[in-house]
Design a protein that fits this description.
- The chain is 69% helix and 0% strand.
- The protein is built from ten helices and no strands.
- By secondary structure, it is mainly alpha-helical.
- The longest helix has 34 residues.
- Helix 1 packs antiparallel against helix 2, helix 7 runs antiparallel to helix 8 and helix 8 runs parallel beside helix 10.
- It has two domains: 100 residues; 95 residues.
Amino acid sequence: MAKTLSQLKSAVAKAKALNNVELHAELNQILATMKQPWPKAFRLLSKLLQCASSQISKHYIADLFGEATDPQVLKPLMRAAKASENREYSSNFIFPCAQYDCTDYVNFFVQFLLTCKDPGEAMAGCVHVIEEMQGPFDSDSIRINVAKLLGRDRSMIPTDLQTQDEVLTLQAAYALLDKYFSQVDRQWNLELRVSS
């Protein structure tokens, strides 16, 4: 967190130098909040993530959440990623989620990926989060999500981006299948050892 806090202090000084009063106040509020015990800081930052007027402020909060080692930050990050006012910045909220095991939220990340109309950073972020999931995975969930990924309708994607979209979608499906295969293989080998 030290690196993000250092960058945040620099951003506060820059906002002050540029006489950006609103941004300066929001960034200062984040700094002050981080001096609180974590449970209180988490609650305050979660509220600020929803109501901050600056994407710069939201970006710093998301980075701090990514470094917090507290999985309760996932729900505010996912809400922020879905919020319409953050549509062009959703990757800022997706990538920090990869610092946590998001296995319980596999459906969210697959669905979010499938709603992306641009195969850019947000989709890549979802793939990264999926690749970092630890499992165990439910077989029905894997089958449903892989089928959704493989059956993606690319008609809404511009022609020149359809190949990139397909690569990211297939990468997500492959990651899920690979992780599930490893899970089933471990279980099978365990059963073989027990039965011998």
